[in-house]
Each structure stands twice: as C-alpha cells, then as structure tokens.
Amino acid sequence: MGTEIERKFRVRDDSWRKQADAGTRFRQGYLVGSEMASVRVRIEGEKANLNIKSATLGVTRSEYEYAIPRDEAEELLEKLCEKPLIEKTRYRLTFAGVLWEVDVFAGDNEGLVVAEVELASEDATFEVPPWAGEEVSHDKRYYNVCLVKHPYKDWTDRDQ
C-alpha cells in the first residue's frame, strides 16, 4: 500500500520564488470523490497519472498512482471528470535541506497559493520557511478534491 505523509501551509508572500524551479503546469480532475476515497486524473507537464487517495482528514493518507497515456488522460478530463478542473503550477524548491512544493492555483481557484512538504513520518521534524504561513493540513477545504466542489473564488473567508 502507498502512504503519503504531507503537511500543507498557506503561503504568506512571493519570497519563495527566488529559490524555485521554473514550475510544472498541472491539470487534474476527479472521476469519483466519496467519503472513502477520491479517484483523479492528473496531467503533470507531459506525464499523466490515475491516482486513488483515501479521503481521511489529516497528514497521513493511503495513495496509489498509475501512469496512463496522456491522450487518454485528456479525454477523461474533458468527458468524465467533474468541473471545474483543478489548474495550477507547481514549483519545487529546497529549504533547510527539505523539498517543498508550492502550488499556485489558476482558474476558479486563482489567488490560492499553498506549500506542501512530504515527510517520512508524522513526527518528522523540519524547519518551516518564513514564507509559509498558517498550517492547513487538517482543513479539508484545501484538499484539491474539495476545491472542485467549493472553489477558492467562492470562499467568503479567503483572507483567513
């Protein structure tokens, strides 16, 4: 079984950009989202994957990922996935020896910027960068599957 341990933070400012790579564009959509799991199709640059992730709230979740042909991913996104699709650019950078991913959302989630760090264990220690703000790992609104049903543009408390 695949396991993902991930901590998620709001981003305070753009100072992270000085150390980031050029970024990779993502488009993803959800075929199924239930109380048990979500099934998503993701195009990441030139790669495409089908991903199954448990719907548990918190920093540790089961995750399975399988490569699929890009043309099939495009077809699934257009014909079968719930709209709106998640559109974002993911930037990678290292801070204090740890890889961080910063997602800058577009489309219906424009204005939302979130940083994630994947860890080997829930109790792993790491330094939080100065540009990382409030931790939102336990706030389901920040899960991509939830951003489809309730996009950032519709949040009434966007500044919190």
Low-pLDDT stretches are none
Question: Quick one: overall form?
Answer: globular
CATH H-level homologous superfamily name: Hypothetical Protein Pfu-838710-001
Number of helices: 2
Number of strands: 9
C-alpha-based Rg, rounded: 15 Å
Pfam families: CYTH (PF01928)
Protein name: Adenylate cyclase
Active site: 30
Domain CYTH: 2-149
Q: What order do the helices and strands come in, and which of them pair?
A:
Blueprint lengths: L2 E9 L12 E10 L3 E8 L2 E8 L5 E8 L2 H10 L6 E10 L2 E8 L7 E6 L13 E4 L8 H6 L11
Antiparallel strand pairs: 1-5, 1-8, 1-9, 2-3, 2-6, 3-4, 4-5, 6-7, 7-8
Pfam families: CYTH (PF01928)
Protein name: Adenylate cyclase
Give a structural overview.
The protein is mostly beta strands. The chain has one domain: Hypothetical Protein Pfu-838710-001 (Beta Barrel). The chain is built from two helices and nine strands; from the N terminus they run βββββαββββα. It has an eight-stranded antiparallel beta barrel with strand order 1-5-4-3-2-6-7-8.
